[in-house]
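[SOLVED] Need 3D model of a two-part complex

Original post:
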Amino acid sequence: MKSLLTKLTIPICTAAVLALASGCASSGIRNPSGVPVTHMNADEQGFVASTGVESQDLVMVTDKMARSILGIPQVANAPTPPTIVLDPVDNQTRFPINKEIFLTRIRAQLNIKASGKLIFLARAQMDTLEKERNRKREGQVTASSDPTVQEFKGADYFLTGTLQGMSTRTKAGTSDYILYNFHLIDARTSAIVWEDMAEIKKQGLEDAAYR
Amino acid sequence: MKSLWQPTLLAVCLTFAGCATTKQPTVALTGDIMVDAPNAIANGPPRDRVLWEYRLALAAMRQGKFDVAKQNLDDALLTLGGIYGKDADAKKARSYFHAEARKTFIGEPYERSMAYIYRGIIYWMDGEPDNARACFRSAEFEDSDAEQHQYAGDWVLPEYLDGLITKKLGGDGSDAFKRAQADSRGVRLPPYNLKANVIFFIEFGPGPTKFATGQYKEELRFSTTPSPVTSAELKVGSLQIPIAPTDDVDFQANTRGGRVMDHILGKKAVFKSATDTAGNVALIGGLTTAAVSNNRTAQEVGLGIALAGLISKVVSAATIPAADTRSWESLPRYLSFASIPLALGQHVVTVQFLDASGRVAANLTKTITLNITTTDRDKVVFVSDTSITPQTL
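Solution:
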């Protein structure tokens, strides 16, 4: 009797351990205590990712565009720095995004790397600028030059862009392709004097529990 | 015998101790969504966060608190958009011994689509029609994996509005219009009116909720209370516009078809049933053998079989095939839309909701005072049969 019970003890305990291991997936949890704040570079893919527009895409695309703009004759050979106004990007993808961020980074990159070769006009601040000019004209504040002279510059070029996407969703997962297109338009002739693009395709598949 | 039951008890305890999870936070509900939802988001289980954000956002929209709605929808859609890859809770939800409701809630496709539609409305309100269009496209996208192809991406309003915005932004929206018309199941959609600067989103009726059926509640189903309201009417000055539903959320919920998770839950149910049956057979057979036999060895073998049966019963009892019935139950049944041109200035708009026989449900009538101050952007108005009234926008 005793020897049989001894024999039974081992399979019973084994069964219990197996049940424990198979039934309780808690042993498989990654990072059960969370992940502390991690400093990432903007151009690297972190451990949080989606198939949409992310910081590494922004950095890659805007770096490429800034380099490309600097090489065109209208900028490289201009006798005086051309003036540029940023026109909002047209988002035609399925991802709602902050559209300003692309042009903001391109402008910043150009101003950092080619300061003086291009002049960007602060059209977004026109209301504030006009109020200040009017105060100067009315003598409410001091002016370092004649405030009655029109000194607000007109644009030589408009820099704008379009984001277009193609998305597919099947049992195999989600696929998102985004074409980032930017172009520089001559304000006088409407000619597109420069254009460049970048393409990014991402695919992912969610856990079966969500499918 | 004593030494046989000790390891058995140990095994059972080990099994349950191993499965024990840390106590999930619970929140006391007051019945006021504007109190309960923030409380649940802050203190409740993280897996339910998105559900409460959905609920809070919609309740806020119906109270004209669009900033609250925006903040919550943005957070919910971040989770929804980043759900790819490994997920520990989702893995547990697939395991035999955890419920599907263990996973982080992002909703079924019709719920995800509605979240994008509401966010799109707010983007349009904020003067960002292209981001609104992006949301409407994502709404269609969430619905694009239906089991039967004819029901994939068949929301009418997002498609129609995609075309309208494209046209307003200088593009050609005719393809989207054609797709919307093809999906509209008999409703004749109005041609795009580019002069219309006031856009009305109108929703009414109680939407679908979830319930589980099957032997172990492993089959997810949807139910919708018949709507007392089946259409609406919009009045501005002498203008009177009938509003028919363009989308039926109940239809969208029921036409998605089978999920991958349904297959997993089916396997769980079979496992639960099989282990239960095997346990019964082993228990009865083993105990009977032990009881009727005069041979000591046979008695011991019988007890061993009964013990194995008991373990099988425990495993069966621990198997949870129940479907996840957490539901965004405040969704409407019907969505509709109207667009009209209105001059700068103040306009009083009345929206009446009608039953199937065309009678006005007087207690649901909404009055909205519109102040149109610019022609630079569309005035976007969201009206639900459960919205507060009057509103000034």
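Edit: Residues 23-29 of chain A have pLDDT under 50 and may be disordered.
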